Write a sequence for this structure.
């Protein structure tokens, strides 16, 4: 890690608080120390995630809901939507000038890939978090008993939307630190974890090295969760995204078993029934391990670290994948949009839609 040239060390740590802050329970800290023993290794869990934040008048940066974008543009789109909500609130209180400023800023985000924007005296930015998992002899760490989880009535029922984001409303204070105990030790470990040369493209390694110098501090966000499968002695995630709670991750795995597996593998009715029973077991038992048809699945705990520098939390890096442009970005070379109706879906697509609709109907009836 490259040392900072700034003489003021205050930005080397970060404080994480919430609007209604709750102290860490003794159980959570005990479990965190146990995790260090049983899952001693920490590995990168795919690519980073992105969210939006605004600077508070009293200091620090408050995170917006749904800190789960897989590319910076996902966070920009969310920020544009947030600004439009602020415009609506300004209109409701009769402040048409503020409403116009918010709408103008949202319009810029629709056209330009901006990672920071100011509206009057308010500052907003896109924030980057690196993801990690703990590994042990038996594989990746599952959820802990102290991890907040959706109620039993949520699992396998209701709509297909995720739970509330546990990071929403948390405030990153660059100049203070309150993450102690096992969380503080983990934070220091993850800050030292850089993308190794030769394991990633050169620009990714170089950006990782530069970030250690420009944003030497950091804070841990609440953990998120994903489903993983063991194949040939190795574990691989089922998707690039993560869920807010273990229950949401189980719901995603159940959806995979009821919809994606039958569609991808063109299963017969009898073969589908095996996976449907496994998904039912997942819903009923709320388990974090599941074996079905010779396959082994696990719900995995994912840590998130936001690097922090003198000016606040780190934003996107030049090497971060950002494949989709802003929704209204205009490419002069692009042809005009085709107004003709979309083609009829083929048989395979119709089968997928039927499976998904069957699952949606099942959940709404519970």
């Amino acid at each position: 890690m490259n040392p900072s040239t700034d003489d003021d060390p205050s930005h080397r740590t970060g404080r994480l608080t919430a609007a209604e802050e709750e102290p860490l329970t003794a159980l959570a800290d005990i479990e965190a120390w146990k995790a260090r023993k049983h899952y001693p290794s920490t590995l990168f869990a795919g690519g980073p995630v992105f969210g939006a934040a605004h600077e508070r008048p009293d200091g620090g940066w408050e995170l917006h809901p749904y800190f789960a974008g897989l590319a910076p543009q996902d966070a920009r789109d969310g920020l544009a939507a947030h600004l439009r909500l602020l415009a609506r609130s300004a209109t409701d209180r009769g402040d048409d000038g503020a409403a116009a400023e918010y709408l103008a800023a949202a319009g810029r985000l629709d056209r330009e890939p901006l990672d920071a924007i100011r509206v009057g005296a308010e500052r907003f930015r896109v924030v980057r978090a690196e993801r990690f998992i703990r590994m042990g002899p038996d594989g990746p760490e599952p959820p802990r008993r102290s991890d907040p989880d959706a109620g039993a009535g949520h699992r396998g029922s209701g709509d297909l939307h995720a739970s509330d984001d546990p990071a929403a409303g948390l405030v990153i204070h660059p100049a203070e630190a309150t993450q102690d105990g096992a969380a503080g030790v983990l934070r220091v470990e993850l800050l030292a974890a850089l993308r190794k040369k030769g394991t990633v493209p050169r620009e990714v390694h170089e950006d990782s090295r530069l970030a250690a110098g420009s944003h030497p501090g950091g804070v841990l966000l609440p953990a998120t969760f994903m489903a993983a499968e063991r194949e040939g002695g190795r574990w691989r995630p089922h998707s690039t995204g993560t869920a807010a709670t273990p229950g949401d991750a189980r719901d995603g795995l159940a959806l995979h078993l009821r919809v994606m597996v039958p569609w991808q593998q063109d299963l017969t009715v009898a073969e589908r029934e095996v996976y449907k029973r496994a998904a039912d077991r997942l819903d009923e038992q709320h388990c974090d391990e599941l074996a079905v048809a010779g396959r082994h699945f696990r719900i995995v705990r994912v840590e998130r670290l936001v690097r922090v520098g003198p000016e606040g939390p780190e934003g996107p890096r030049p090497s971060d994948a950002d494949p989709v442009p802003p929704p209204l970005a205009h490419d002069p070379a692009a042809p005009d949009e085709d107004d003709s109706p979309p083609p009829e879906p083929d048989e395979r697509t119709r089968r997928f839609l039927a499976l998904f609709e069957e699952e949606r109907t099942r959940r709404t009836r519970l």
